[in-house]
Amino acid sequence: MIRLLNILFLFACITVSAQMTENNQLKLATDLLFSNPEKSAKISEKAFAEAKNYNDKIKALSKLVNAQMVLGNISQVINNCVKGINLSKEKNDTINQIRFLSMLGNQYQQLNMNNDAKKNLDEAENLINTIDLPKDLLFIKGNVYNVKGIVFKNELNCEFAVKYFDKALDVYNKLPSRDVITTNKLLIDIQKAVCLESLGNSKEAENIYKMILKVNDPGIGFNKYFASVGLADIYLKRNEVDNADKMLQTINVNEFSSYDLELTGLFFKLKSQSSYLKKDSKLYLYYFEKYNNNLNQISQSQNQIISRLVKNDKENFAEKINKNLMRNIALIFILIIIFSGLLLFFYRFLRKKAVK
C-alpha cells in the first residue's frame, strides 16, 4: 500500500511537471525516471545545483523528488520536500507549495508520524481552499483528502476518515477515467471499507470488497488482493472459515511479497488465524512465524529510514522522530509478547489434547 501511494503521488508530480517548460537535461531525467531512477536523480541534482533562477530550481527539485520516490528514499524525499516548500513560499507559488506539502504529509504518514503528516496536509488543504485549482490538477486535491483519511484511519478515528475518503471520491468522480484515477478510487474504497468494518458496518464493507473484485479494469492492480484479504478477514470474524479459505486461495502472495510488506503481512496473519480456527497447529506455527518475520522486516525498514532522518536533520527534529520511534518499538514489542503468549497457550492446549 505504501509503495502504491508513492506511485500515485508520483503521477501527480509528473503531470504538474509536464506543464512546465523543460530543458534537454530535465527531459532526459524524466525519460530515465522508471528505467534508471539513479541516473535521473543525479541529473536532477546537478540541474538543481546549477540552476540560476527559481523556475529552473523548482523544476529540477521536482524531478529529483520524483526519482527519489521511485527509489523509495523517504528520508531524501522529506528533506527535498522541505526545500521545495521553502522555495515556493518565498515566491508565493501556491501550486508548488500544495504539491510539496502533500508529498511531505504522505511521507510522514508512511512513517506513522501522524501529527507531522496532519500538520502538512492541513496546510495543503488550507491553501487549496484559497485558490481555484485547474481541472487537470484536481487530483492533487483528491490525494490530499485521501492521505488525510488514511491518517485518521491510522489514529482509529474512522468517522473522520470516512468523511475524507468520501471527499476524495467526490473529487475523483469528476475527473476523466484513466488507469491512475481508477487505481486511486479503488484504493480509497478499500481504506473506506476497513473503516466501515471497524465502525460495525461489516455488510457495507463486504459489498465494497465484492464490488472491487468485479472490476475489470487494468487500473485495479493489487487492489484486488487487498479486497480479497478484506473479505477473508470479515469471513474469519464471522467464523466462516471455508469462505475465508476460498478467498485466501485466490491470492498469489509471490506476486507482491517483495513489493508490499503490509499486504504480505495481512495475508500471513489471516492464514495463521484460519489455521488456528481449524486447529491445525503445524500450519498455524508456520504462518505465525512468517507473520512475525514480516513485522520485524517492517520495523527494521522504518528504523533504517528514521535513522537516516535523525542523522541528517536538526536536533529538535531528531528528538521528535525518536519519540515516534520509541512508541513504534514499544507497540511492536507488546504485539510480539501478545502473539507469543497466544502461541504458547495454543501449543500447550494441543499437547494436552494429544496426551488425552
From TrEMBL:
The keyword ATP-binding does not apply. Residues 1-18 form the signal peptide. The chain crosses the membrane at residues 329-350. Keywords: Membrane, Signal, Transmembrane, Transmembrane helix. It comes from the Bacteria. This is Tetratricopeptide repeat protein. It comes from Epilithonimonas pallida.
